[in-house]
What we know:
Oligomer: single chain
Strand order of the largest sheet: 1-2-4-7-9-12
CATH superfamily of the largest domain: 2-enoyl-CoA Hydratase, Chain A, domain 1
Number of helices: 10
Mean pLDDT: 90
Amino acid sequence: MAEFVHVERGDDGVAVLRLDRPPANALSMAVLDEIADAATALTADPPGAVVVTGGDKIFAAGADIAEFGGPDEAAKIAGHFRQAFDAVAAIPRMTIAAVAGFALGGGCELALACDMRVAADTAAFGQPEVLLGIIPGAGGTQRLTRLVGPARAKDIILSGRRIKTGEALNIGLCDRVFPAQVLQAEARALALSFANGAVAAHALAKRAIDAAFDDSLANGLDVERDLFIEVFNTDDAKTGVQSFLENGPGKATFKGR
């Protein structure tokens, strides 16, 4: 039984992965291992969509600084971060980070490993590692740059400043902003809108989109072509095409196969 990371699967197809390590949801190696285990289980038996969230005041405050030391400790910690966040990114369904309060350092990087980020109007993002004389080590320099571009990523990472939700929305660091009291309900509703879709196609589309950042354009187009062909083996593709021909767009009921 996990101590710090809990997964709740709803009958509606939405799973919620919740961090629960008071007071700040610090990402110790034990917490990271539980995130990796939870994400691996969600990949092996995927729901319709996943919400990743933390506390009402702190989504996740970052790495557990008490575990820091020299290069040997850094290598060990980096390995746990890589395993956990790569596992989250590999979940073959839409993943939505619901950020209330602070998402700093590793907490911001966890949100970046998700497909979308929705935030409370009181939330704040940041990569403050430079204030400790170090740099992000869990994807911040890579995923943040792909999301907001190199100039903005350098501004955020080299300053260590906190990004409030208005700015985060403007630069694409988050995708929706809601009043804090309705954040979780709105995140779940958004997840449900994906869970009701052609989730087998979602898995293939995610792979194709992610390939755009992993290789050259030519190779990415090759991956897209191969997955475009593969998706026509799914029942949902047959259902969707037939429904369009008979009833027009947006009327299909998908079964996720």
